[in-house]
Amino acid sequence: MEMSVEIVAHAPAFAMVAETGADVAAREALLDRAMGPMRRKKSSEKLRRGRRPSEGLAFVARDASGGVAGTVRLWDVRLGEGGRAALLLGPLAVDPSLKNAGIGSALMRHAVAEAARLGHAAILLVGDAPYYGRFGFSAARTGSLAMPGPYERHRLLALELVEGALDGAQGTLKAAGRKLKAQATMAA
Ligand SMILES: CC(C)(COP(=O)(O)OP(=O)(O)OC[C@H]1O[C@@H](n2cnc3c(N)ncnc32)[C@H](O)[C@@H]1OP(=O)(O)O)[C@@H](O)C(=O)NCCC(=O)NCCS
């Protein structure tokens, strides 16, 4: 069999870039591969369904040939009824064949930096503290917050982008993102 590519001794370059409409099918297929079909049953999904990601905060890790190697998005939420604004991060996923190459970390750092640049105050997520701790996330400030559905309390993590942003924050997270439907009815 003819080899058409050189053997790559180190990880090829991936670019962390804004997701485009052309990436949606590849992103969904990647999420199914990385997380399985139960991903749609998560409590986080309740806060995402029918909404668009926060403006400018949907990213893919793009490989040299334009393919999607990883994905992360952030969503607008409110902390409690009428509460303060924050972001919910997720899902974060990397193609299973490319795990442990630093792509997840690069996506996380890019997402956090962009959220801070856009003036957001705090990011929440449901995930493994041993992974997300390296990016500054912890459960220290989420004790009075709750997801709208079943979740493991110790996995609700937060990162303040503005110091003190989560002081006194309490209540159940509510979806606050732009609705998908609004796009279609805008012209009416
Ligand atoms: C979790 C995930 C996004 C990490 O992406 P990645 O590109 O493989 O990760 P990175 O290369 O940036 O980091 C790898 C490091 O994270 C560690 N790590 C990965 N998942 C971890 C977890 N769940 N808990 C603790 N550490 C974890 C690895 O052991 C490795 O550690 P090392 O740096 O000490 O060697 C990816 O494995 C994935 O898509 N998993 C399936 C979907 C998923 O679980 N998403 C997160 C939902 S909470």
Automatic annotation (TrEMBL):
InterPro entries: Acyl_CoA_acyltransferase, GNAT_dom. GO terms for molecular function: acyltransferase activity, transferring groups other than amino-acyl groups. Keywords: Transferase. Gene3D superfamilies: 3.40.630.30. Residues 14-162 form the N-acetyltransferase domain. This is N-acetyltransferase. It comes from Mesorhizobium erdmanii. The lineage of its organism: Bacteria, Pseudomonadati, Pseudomonadota, Alphaproteobacteria, Hyphomicrobiales.
